């Protein structure tokens, strides 16, 4: 039985992430844990910045009722939307900081994936929007699906894997990537971003060869972007290869930060494609 943790603030963005999860895992047994975090009993924390960020997440204008009542309503909606009798839903409520709450349940429930909705940054709100998702993917060692606010689930045919080939692909990373491909019967498109006229080193070549061998029974191909703006290059690749999801190892999170959390006014990249963040 797979276990999925979905934090919610009861916003439309969170609802969209839940809908995406129900579709993505539509055909397999899953225990879904729907988590809401309130701040009322955690304001004593010394880190004022973290407290403010969590306040925005859990005490925003969408939370107009008792969170326990709203969680029950959320579970009812999930049960109505799910068409799989082997989907089970559990409500979780915590009064601690978001990352602390997520870490706790990842360990206690042996969570396989966290799934979070996110919004792109705006000119007037550069550092706040998406900050909770950013905190989780950098501080919690669990694979995270990041669902952009405009993402709609379609059949997953192509998953791009962004890599610099510099890391040894450990079993945990490669297994989760393989599981995602097999679950959707998707093809793997490995994308390497490099400087112009820079060849792969011996170790990079070995790591690329390992990917080719490991996925020998999965449809896959290798690609590279050279001497291009990263955002523009990835956008072009997504459109050309009809990419439905982008996977990346957490050590390369600078890519994710630039693509998901860079202010819209500074970026040409507009993503409706979910990310899968993998941890070593």
Description of the molecule:
Helix content is 38%, strand content 22%. The chain is an alpha/beta fold and 280 residues long. Strands 3-2-1-4-5-10-9-6-7-8 form a 10-stranded mixed sheet, sandwiched between helices. The longest helix has 15 residues. The protein starts with a strand and ends with a strand.
Beta-sheet strand percentage? 15-25%
Distance between the termini: 22 Å
Structural class: alpha/beta
- The CATH superfamily of the largest domain is identified as HUPs
Tell me the radius of gyration: 19 Å
Q: Which range best describes the helical content: under 10%, 10-25%, 25-40%, 40-55%, 55-70% or over 70%? A: 25-40%
User: Any idea of the CATH class of the largest domain?
Assistant: Alpha Beta
Order of helices and strands: EHEHHEHEHEEHEHEHEHE
* Total beta strands: 10
Widest sheet, order of strands = 3-2-1-4-5-10-9-6-7-8
List the topology elements.
Layout: E1 2-7, H1 12-24, E2 30-37, H2 48-58, H3 67-81, E3 87-94, H4 98-108, E4 113-118, H5 131-139, E5 144-148, E6 158-163, H6 171-184, E7 187-194, H7 202-214, E8 220-226, H8 230-240, E9 245-249, H9 253-260, E10 275-278
Structure in a nutshell:
The protein has 280 residues and is α/β, with parallel strands linked by helices. The protein has 9 helices and 10 strands. The chain is 38% helix and 22% strand.
Main attributes?
38% helix; Rossmann fold; alpha/beta; 10 strands; 280 residues; 2 domains; 10-stranded mixed β-sheet; 9 helices
């Amino acid at each position: 039985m797979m276990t999925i943790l979905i934090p919610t603030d009861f916003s439309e963005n969170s609802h969209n992430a839940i809908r995406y999860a129900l579709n993505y895992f539509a055909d397999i047994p899953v225990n879904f844990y729907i988590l809401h975090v309130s701040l009322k009993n955690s304001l004593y924390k010394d880190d004022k910045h973290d407290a403010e960020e969590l306040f925005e997440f859990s005490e925003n204008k969408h939370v107009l009722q008792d969170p326990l009542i709203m969680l029950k309503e959320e579970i009812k909606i999930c049960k109505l939307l799910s068409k799989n009798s082997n989907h089970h839903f559990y409500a979780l409520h915590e009064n601690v900081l978001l990352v602390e709450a997520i870490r706790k349940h990842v360990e206690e429930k042996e969570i396989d994936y966290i799934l979070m909705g996110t919004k792109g940054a705006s000119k007037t709100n550069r550092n706040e929007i998406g900050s909770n998702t950013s905190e989780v993917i950098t501080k919690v060692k669990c694979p995270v699906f990041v669902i952009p606010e405009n993402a709609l689930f379609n059949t997953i045919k192509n998953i791009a894997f962004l890599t610099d080939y510099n890391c040894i692909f450990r079993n945990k990373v490669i297994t989760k990537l393989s599981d995602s491909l097999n679950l959707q019967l998707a093809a793997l498109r490995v994308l390497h971003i490099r400087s112009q006229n820079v060849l792969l080193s011996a170790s990079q070549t070995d790591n690329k060869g390992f990917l080719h061998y490991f996925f020998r029974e999965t449809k896959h191909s290798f690609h590279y972007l050279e001497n291009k703006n990263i955002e523009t290059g990835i956008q072009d690749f997504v459109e050309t290869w009809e990419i439905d999801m982008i996977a990346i190892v957490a050590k390369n999170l600078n890519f994710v930060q630039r693509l998901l959390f860079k202010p819209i006014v500074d970026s040409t990249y507009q993503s409706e494609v979910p990310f899968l963040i993998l941890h070593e």
